[in-house]
Design goal:
Blueprint lengths: L5 E3 L1 E3 L14 E4 L13 E10 L2 E9 L1 H4 L25 E4 L2 E4 L2 E4 L30 H9 L9 E6 L4 E6 L14 E7 L5 E8 L3 E5 L4 E5 L15 E7 L2 E7 L15 E4 L3 E3 L12 E4 L3 E3 L39 E8 L4 E9 L4 E5 L88 E4 L6 E4 L6 E4 L5 E4 L1 E3 L4
């Protein structure tokens, strides 16, 4: 037979308290009997749960014990004092007592003297009774209610009541009035009604609709008869044209300018100006002061002097833009105040499903040149990390800071990564995390986290000596585990003793 390894949990036969030193997942059992009742600690199996603090579980759960199993030791389906309720094979219990009520067979009985039985649904709940008979008689509940209250139902003003004792019903209906049934009102008439105190219509009729519409202009006025007259809206020759069209039940009136507009006096443009042919200016052009003022031309726009655009957005829909200026100045109106807005170039492109927007330029917050290929400028012209990749043939730099975002990697696209310092020494000031294999030219000393060895004892476990500067081995036989004895020294043993609490 294979060697046994025995595991003992924490136990007590004298301690009347619950264990207060369990770790998460650790078990303890109390077979102490004097404190085994309800709310006590004896004859229970405990387990530590929750997060540990200073090595002790934050919670303690009771998961079993003799105190609970004895409550289940009785015949199924029989109500037993101070024991659990266990139904029989038909999911039944012989009787059930709740406060002053007893449920036994087909009878619900109150056990207190002269005690009432109250049915009280919560909220909008209803008490539903089927086949109800009153005081043990042959009178149904419907007959009893009708005999009690049915005859007392009488009609008031405008209400008619018909009682039927045989059907146990009282029919309530609205008394007819002198109003003739039908439709009242038309496109030229408005219906009128008279209502009594009971909300009934006692008279109905119609009156004619007023059909006159008064129209006032900048000068002059006139009345339009809605039943016979037409309302005409006519534009001014060479200045305004109007078009009226009907589609279904909708009539649309369109007011616009003709193809050739003749202005008899001065023309002031505070919004957009559109030119169908060429627009040539040898001097300056000024369009109002509004930020939305524009000049549109389908021909060429030639400016012989300086061009100043005072607006919010300037759009140039050209395929090629040619500039003679070798240096472009951005944000020329910037002062010494920190505005938090980046400087650079925004660009747009499609990724196959959506339009993306990128940015290359100067990040005002970090004061570095940055690049991002997917940016949201809906909240303002301030780009934000994470920054994206840039490719160059070679980079010459002073200090090199890596990992500004979440990634802190140096990766080659081909070949090995070689670190070759000019003076022959690579100085690493922080911890080194190596996830691949490590090849050393010499044994790594214990002082530096190694074993100091090139060969090892078979089936053994590394153990440091008492000084912590050398390694030895601990071996064992089948079923044994590594533990620490009372002196704190590691040993191998086949018994795990939880001790007591």
């Amino acid at each position: 037979m294979a060697k046994l390894t025995r595991m003992k949990i924490l136990t007590t036969g004298a301690n009347t308290n619950v264990p207060g030193n369990l770790k998460t997942g650790e078990l303890a059992y109390s077979y102490e009997q004097s404190e085994k009742g309800v709310g006590e600690a004896g004859e229970r199996l405990y387990i530590g749960s929750g997060t540990e603090s200073n090595g002790i579980a934050s919670s303690l759960d009771i998961i079993g014990g003799k105190f609970f199993t004895q409550m289940l030791d009785h015949a199924h389906g029989e109500l037993t004092a101070s024991s659990a309720i266990i139904t029989d094979s038909s999911n039944k219990i012989n009787q059930l007592n709740v406060d002053n009520l007893r449920l036994d067979a087909n009878t619900i009985t109150s056990t207190d003297t002269n005690g009432n039985i109250v049915l009280d649904p919560a909220g909008a709940g209803k008490t539903v009774l089927h086949n109800v008979y009153i005081n043990g008689t042959s009178d149904s509940l419907a007959e009893f209610i009708y005999d009690t209250v049915g005859g007392a139902v009488t009609g008031g003003t405008g209400i008619t009541v018909a009682n039927s004792d045989g059907a146990d019903t009282s029919t309530v209906s609205i008394t007819n009035t002198s109003v003739t049934a039908g439709s009242y009102g038309s496109t030229t008439q408005i219906p009128t009604f008279t209502v009594n105190a009971q909300g009934q219509l006692i008279a109905a009729g119609v009156v004619d609709v007023a059909t006159a519409l008064t129209v006032n202009g900048d000068s002059g006025t006139g009345d339009v008869d809605l039943l016979t007259d037409d309302l005409r809206i006519i534009g001014t020759a060479n200045e305004v044209v109007t078009t009226s069209a009907k589609s279904g039940t909708n009539v649309t009136l369109t007011i616009g300018l003709p193809d050739d507009v003749t202005i008899g006096d001065a023309l002031t443009v505070t919004g957009a100006a559109s030119v169908g042919g060429n627009f040539s200016v040898d001097g300056n052009v000024t369009l109002g002061n509004a930020t939305s003022d524009t000049v549109n031309t389908s021909g060429n726009l030639i400016v012989g002097g300086d061009l100043t655009v005072n607006g919010t957005t300037t759009s140039v829909n050209s395929t090629v833009i040619s500039l003679d200026d070798p240096v472009l100045v951005l944000a020329d109106n910037s002062g010494t105040t920190v505005d938090g807005v980046d400087r650079g170039i925004r660009f747009k492109y499609g990724d196959g499903t959506a339009t993306k927007e990128g940015f290359f330029g100067f990040d005002h917050q970090t004061e570095r040149f940055v690049f991002t290929k997917d940016e949201d400028f809906s909240g303002g012209e301030d780009a934000s990390s994470p920054w994206h990749d840039a490719q160059f043939g070679g980079v010459y730099a002073g200090d090199l800071d890596l990992g500004i975002g979440a990634n802190n990697k140096i990766t080659t696209t081909a070949g090995n990564l070689v670190l070759d310092s000019f003076s022959g020494t690579i100085d690493i000031n922080d911890n080194v995390d190596i996830s691949g294999s490590l090849v050393l030219g010499t044994d790594l000393a214990v002082l530096h986290g190694g074993t100091g060895m090139s060969s090892f004892t078979g089936n053994g476990v590394f153990i440091s000596n008492s000084s912590g500067n050398a390694i030895s081995f601990l071996t064992g036989t089948e079923g044994k585990l590594i533990q620490f004895n009372s002196s704190g020294n590691p040993i191998s043993s086949d018994i795990i003793d939880g001790g007591t609490y």
